[in-house]
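I am writing to request your help with a piece of structural work I have in hand. I set the record out below, with my sincere thanks for your time.
___
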Amino acid sequence: NLANQEITPIEAAYLSQYPGLEKVEKLDLRKNRLGDEGLEVLLNSEKIRNVRELDLRNNQITRLGMVIMSNTKNLLNLQRLDLRVNKLGKRWEEKLKEQGQLPKLSELRIT
């Protein structure tokens, strides 16, 4: 649980290379300051491939972050994603599902 730790894009870069991250199935990053840049660094890490639940509530993620997420190939096992309290519209639910990069996603919360 890394909620409310004020994680910035710089700390996200360290986190993305953290030994043992590849064993994490539930990653709680709510109430941080990842932004789009931190999200991109995290999503580009192959160490997150086993994550099944990802909580990114309240992280200053915008449309750019969603474009990055819709193109990642490292979340193929993701089943639950929470993106509430970010700068996103409801239409991203459909867009993320349509992209096909999250084939196991069964629960998505944006608004």
Notes: The helical segments are 9-16, 35-43, 63-71, 91-99. The chain has a mean pLDDT of 93. The longest helix spans residues 35-43.
